Amino acid sequence: MRDFDYIRPATIPDAIAAAAEPGSAYLAGGTNLLDLMKGGVTSPERIVDISRLPELNRIERLDDGGLRIGALVRNADLAHDAAFARTYPAVAEALLSGASAQLRNAATVGGNLLQRTRCSYFYDTASACNKREPSAGCAALGGENRLHAVLGWSDACIATHPSDFCVPLVALDAVVEIEGKAGRRHVTLAEFHRLPGDTPQRENALEPGDLIVAVRLPAEAASFAANARYLKVRERTSYAFAVVSAAAALVVDGGKIRAARLALGGVAAKPWRSRSAEAVLLGAGANEANFIRAADAALADASPSGDNAFKIELARRIVVRALMSAQAGTPERLPALPASPFSNIPGARHDA
Amino acid sequence: MTKTTIPIHLDINGQHHELQLEPRVTLLDALRDRLAPTGTKKGCDHGQCGACTVHVDGERVLACLTLAAQAQGRAITTIEGLAREGELHPVQAAFLEQDAFQCGYCTSGQIMSAVACIREGHAGSDDEIREYMAGNLCRCGAYPHIVAAVRQAALEVAS
């Protein structure tokens, strides 16, 4: 790891001023950044350690029924907050399906949004990568790409965003609260992450010095508590990134769908909200035939970026399964293996 | 950029240490290379194997993905800090009784993780133990005995 200057500002304005200088990077949990620095994928000259900034580690219920989650709230603390897990069960399930207990004790809400892709060519500094080095080319396009994007990709970049947490968040209309040199602003999570286009190095809406201070959930997000699930297919039973995942949330009344939310993970450079699938579901009967129609709508624009056509069919099936699981109802207790498509079948072994 | 070291105070197993370190030194390297207790192991050094698991303020984290500077002023516990007055910690004893290792390289991380897993209340069933110990890989494949050891220790701690 290249050496760097280490500063630990005492206030948010001090942090923003320091991080606005070229070559700076914020450090919170460090679970992704330090790994990237060890590999020389990124080499900041100045680390601005924000992990002890006051005010950013609170979960606040807002007067309007919404929720404000401080950017430094750790994944484990949020997922195991009983009131949070009861109100936003798909978000808690997504958090617990990610990483390991040790990593969840370090990783933070803000850092989760800023995770870099797990594309192996991005990590390998000997390979061409437009995201790491603009105009260098994309080694993934003709390489090992069975886990790469099937939606929203470009010839410049076919990487996926690895977050589980962001998938139910984008489905629930989460908003990112950002503080920068010009003050505080709000950006919807749907607009926060960018698709690659010709500039895959620009991954989100942040400008130099911008600090994520909180993530907000609007009041309506709580209305899905009884019928919300996150499902995630992994290449091993646990402790793996998603091949494909889906968050589904429904409000069902008299067999009809009154409100529907659907988002996919592991398929694109951003958490993929599918409003076209939601439009199919709204007002329709809550049954498998309509869930299949919604899944077809969600994947209508999908195309393989390499050896990954299987992910399109896999995503369709996971969407149907997630919707059926949501319709069946949020379980009283999270399964021992959160988000597993295998642990919901009666009589199935959790490690099957 | 000025190349320099910074003063870092580390509280390890109840002992206070004052060090001068480059900011890039991880907690893992500080423990192993500067402070001599080498029970905390370096496996992958990328946060994938769990061999470097230690407790910071009582919670399990990966020392390889923590800068020593981030741990300043926190109470750090390593495998060397578990035994009390020569008595093995119940999890250490259970790992011995259940023969929960082969080569032993992952064992200190497994034990540190297991102590936290039980304390968190995540050792209620074998499925739960497997899931909450998933961050600790064992190349020898001693998993069935590790689960048995965690189960045994969890029952002993509860009684």
UniProtKB/TrEMBL annotation, chain A:
GO molecular function, one term: oxidoreductase activity
Record SUPFAM superfamilies: CO dehydrogenase flavoprotein C-terminal domain-like, FAD-binding/transporter-associated domain-like
InterPro entries reported in the protein's UniProt record: CO_DH_flav_C, CO_DH_flav_C_dom_sf, Diverse_Substr_Oxidored, FAD-bd_PCMH, FAD-bd_PCMH-like_sf, FAD-bd_PCMH_sub1, FAD-bd_PCMH_sub2, Mopterin_DH_FAD-bd
Pfam family, one: CO_deh_flav_C
Gene3D superfamilies hit by this protein: 3.30.465.10, CO dehydrogenase flavoprotein, C-terminal domain, Uridine Diphospho-n-acetylenolpyruvylglucosamine Reductase, domain 2
PROSITE patterns on file: FAD_PCMH (PS51387)
Keyword list, A-Z: FAD, Flavoprotein
Domain FAD-binding PCMH-type: 1-222
Entry protein name: Xanthine dehydrogenase YagS FAD-binding subunit
UniProtKB/TrEMBL annotation, chain B:
InterPro entries attached to this UniProt entry: 2Fe-2S-bd (IPR002888), 2Fe-2S-bd_dom_sf (IPR036884), 2Fe-2S_ferredoxin-like_sf (IPR036010), 2Fe-2S_ferredoxin-type (IPR001041), 2Fe2S_fd_BS (IPR006058), Aldehyde_Oxdr_Iron-Sulfur (IPR052914), Beta-grasp_dom_sf (IPR012675)
PROSITE patterns, A to Z: 2FE2S_FER_1, 2FE2S_FER_2
Keywords assigned: 2Fe-2S, Iron, Iron-sulfur, Metal-binding, Oxidoreductase
Single GO term (MF): oxidoreductase activity, acting on the aldehyde or oxo group of donors
Highest taxon of source: Bacteria
Record bears the keyword Oxidoreductase: yes
Domain 2Fe-2S ferredoxin-type residue range list: 6-82
Name of the protein this chain belongs to: Xanthine dehydrogenase YagT iron-sulfur-binding subunit
